[in-house]
Amino acid sequence: MKNILEIESLCKYYGKSSNQTKALDGVTFQVMPGEFLGIMGSSGSGKSTLLNCIATVIKPTSGKIVMQGKEIHSLKGSQLTDYRGKMIGYLFQNFELLDNLTGRENILLPLSLHNVSAEESDRRMKQLASYLEITDVLGKFPSQMSGGQKQRIAAARALILNPGIILADEPTGALDSKNARALMEKLSGLNEEQNATILMVTHDTNAASYCKRILFIQDGVIFHELRRNMPEESQQMFYERILSVMAQLGGGSANVL
Ligand SMILES: Nc1ncnc2c1ncn2[C@@H]1O[C@H](COP(=O)(O)OP(=O)(O)O)[C@@H](O)[C@H]1O
Ligand SMILES: [Mg+2]
User: Fold this and answer.
1) What Cα–Cα distance (Å) separates residue 184 from each residue in 132, 147, 179, 251?
2) The dihedral of CA 119, 122, 128, 130: what is its sign?
3) How far apart are CA 185 and CA 51, in angstroms?
């Protein structure tokens, strides 16, 4: 099978040479269709910078990002609009819902930018709302929803155009542990049942334990990889392995791994 996403020697430096932050300093990895890949690292390790480069929110300093065989740097005009709207679905830590729109209106927002039939989108919305258990809050405004409900509305918005890949930046970061678990069950279910490709960055070990493969990043460099041994390795066993990598990170001994 072909990779859906290829990241090659990606660098992003902020600021001028005297006061420069190397947020990404030569990151290379690939994502296969149907993967649930996690990128783990502590705060400031470059995770959001990486996702923002892939989402074309910011421009990398150097390196390549190839999505479905196309270098995204070369996309222009309607190709770029399609890439941003249809190829990727973005899930943010802080939901980023519009306060003056209902749940339903928030979910349908991406459709206004793209040619999708009303029937098709209505069908998909009902399906997603049912799966994500948000049918009863579709008519509510974000201020009337719990954090968990807001994030599941945001997930439906990210999924409404059936993107090729879901990018999630600390999606459980603003949720309590019960809602975080509920969200991760849903994301993991989408991956298992619908073969959704997910790239999630997080510093939350529990959230990461739902992934099938994890890359560890520190100071803009990937230094370790874990793959869940399916089917024999339980989620709990995987969690323990992730925890031990993170513990070594905390001790500043990343390069002994
Ligand atoms: N717009 C910016 N200007 C300057 N430095 C930035 C900017 N965004 C992020 N950084 C720096 O780049 C590094 C990586 O940040 P970020 O990608 O947000 O990390 P993470 O998401 O892992 O917490 C940090 O040192 C951060 O301070
Ligand atoms: Mg971040």
Assistant:
1) 11, 14, 9, 28
2) negative
3) 22
pTM: 0.94
Tokens of 188: 């993991």
pLDDT(228) > 90: yes
Would you say residue 238 has pLDDT above 90? yes
User: Is the CB of 88 within 6 Å of ligand 1?
Assistant: no
How many A from CA of 48 to the centre of ligand 2?
Answer: 4
Task: Give, for 6, the enclosing helix (H) or strand (E).
Answer: strand 5-14
Q: What is the C-alpha radius of gyration for the chain, rounded to an integer number of angstroms?
A: 18
Map residue 161 onto helix, strand or coil.
Answer: coil
Give 13 Cα–ligand 2 centroid separation in angstroms.
16
Residue of the CA atom closest to atom 25 of ligand 1: 44
Distance in angstroms (rounded) separating the CA atoms of residues 186 and 217: 25
String of b and e for 211-232 (b: at least 16 CB within 10 Å)?
bbbbbbbbbbbbbbebebeeee
Does residue 61 have its Cβ closer than 6 Å to ligand 1?
no
